[in-house]
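Re: folding output
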Amino acid sequence: MPGMSYTETIGFMDMVLASLEKLRDVLEKGGVDADRLIEIVRGLRDRALDLNAKQEAHKRGLVATTAELEEVLHEAYDRASGALDTMIASVGKTSDDAKNLRRMRSNVLRERQTRKAARGKPPA
């Protein structure tokens, strides 16, 4: 498969199968078992089609799982951030404990901005 796409490969196999069917008699006169070649090529084509369908189903599942994960991560951050705010308020906003607690969020955000800057993206 010299750099051929899935669609190109399936199309190529379809053309080969059509030619095998069309030239079956001529090939058999030449000593070629056309039926066996058809069986082999069609079997591999069908297997490729089945595997592609399976792969596409997995892709759809991954897209759905990714969306669900993003929702959970968003809610998880919001809840953790709210818990952090509650802790800061509970220990007194100006206390040393509150300063240490606030550093958790600012350290994470600073690291995020550093990673984005390293990739050439403006900080959010």
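--- second protein (sequence, then structure) ---
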Amino acid sequence: MSERRLGVRLGAIVGVVALLGLAAGGYYWFTRPSGLAAIPNPAVIAPGGFRASVGDDRTITIGLEIRNTANLPLTVVGAQTTAPRGLTRAAMAIIPTGPENEGFTLEGELPALTPVQLGTEPIDRNAILAARFKVDCARLAAADDAFHEQIFVTIQIGDEQRVEELTPPVVGDHPWLMATAQGACTDPLPTLPSTTTNP
């Protein structure tokens, strides 16, 4: 008889635990975060890879790798940079990786800034943030070398958006834009052959 009572009690305890588990699961299901609240902040990072090109017209073009670290797809809908004095932004683009952009270079016209979706798989979680700046060497020389360069991207999931700050790369002791711009001001530019006339 006591074994039967013990079995009934154990069954009741198991039933109560199961009900509590179901209640907790249901509570989590209905109150779990969604949208931007369900992903880390920041969800997009700059893992460190970038390319730079110095044009012969005192322009620099930067291509910075960006990556989705969230477990949900998201869309990068905008980007913005804060650059040192002496740099004027001429163009900016977000370029998805993939077969259609395997030959992408930093030369030529940059495409228009349009939203790009970043997925969660290695094949589609990365993109390139490309920016071109005109360099005024006189103003750049007067700028503070320790200027705090900033890069921001605006991400979207559904109807929700937020702005995230990326960590800019560093070249030696200099932030990336300053280092690349200094190259535009120290490298000699091509000049036309000079002509002389005899008096």
